[in-house]
Amino acid sequence: MDLYEHQARELLHENGVLVPRAEVVDTAEAARAAAERLGGRVVIKAQVKTGGRGKAGGVKLADDPAAAELTARRILGMDIKGHTVHRVMVAEPVEVAREMYLGFALDRAAGRFLAIASAEGGMEIEEVAARRPEAVARIAVDPAEGVTEAKAAEIAVAGGLPRETAETIRRLWTVLTAHDALLVEVNPLVVTRDGAIVALDGKVTLDDNARFRQPSWDDADDRARDPLEARAAAAGLGYVKLDGQVGVIGNGAGLVMSTLDVVAGCGARPADFLDIGGGASAQVMADGLSLVLDDPDVRSVLVNVFGGITACDAVADGIVRALDTVTLGKPLVVRLDGNNAARGRAILGQLAHPLVHQADTMDGAAACAAELAATSVTAVTAAAAAASAYGASGTSSASATSTTSNPSTTSDPSAASDPSAV
Asked: CB–CB of 180/207 below 8 Å?
């Protein structure tokens, strides 16, 4: 489980590593208030689980509380490598004299940990290693022995770090071992103008296999998750947020993974992985569809179900149930096969919703969903009108089961993936 920066910062602070004062907020107004409490001049940092925040404009210095509010407003909602910024950390600035890199990572092949240290911090360590491999020291650490005073001194010397960092090195090792982490990284670790060793940014990855002995993770897990992932977990759904535009729902991890690949092969990017499971009920299908439709990044939704324990008519009932409670403003493509597939298709046909399309094959369904996502601007306008008309009349003259009016839902995969056929 990856932690957000502010959560990693909490672990570092709890174990004696110096960190700047900071607060986490989710509104621009709260950022202003936090800046006032922190002295006025602050750094606003996007809280997303990806690198490159600075290059993307997600880390900015604000000279006063008013600037902090304006900067937070610009960063909140920003997309950084497919991650939407929902919160920012407001931190007091630090006068930096020197930047370094320090981290511990699990070396699975060797069955030990590696201490990684470099006198060149503040940038991606992979870039430093590629450009000047001699600038990055890698020192093996025996888990049975740990990081003693002598080992910490060895790591500091090898990485070109000042000897004063030795105590911080030992405290980082404590974070790793006490919290069952696979990775603990500080970049940059800085020496301030007054000589203090301070962790300006931290990254921590926890080992999910150790969850049984880390009860505090339950709270951290809730706070670390994307809001949609947290909602899915509460509903018992196997959901992972991705960075695309085609929402994907299926039954069984293997089928969902295959669907993701086929969607990508059609030139689109999946927006999520959602497995409703092998014995999903109509309610589970309804919950899953409502969740995916609430994702603002989704432009079209693909439901791909092979009926077994999960009967296709139950899936169709779940779709109908979901559309009774939410307004469908995005195209929905459904492919049903297997147990009770004909009955499920008939249920959707009777629904006759103008935004519900059916396909006979996975390739055809993926091609249709990809095409609809690509034309989302036009589709959204048409969807709003269609949904409004459907809501007013409760019926439609167009049959959702028709494949002749939409060639992209043909059973011929080659025709389905030809954009000229749509």
From this structure: yes
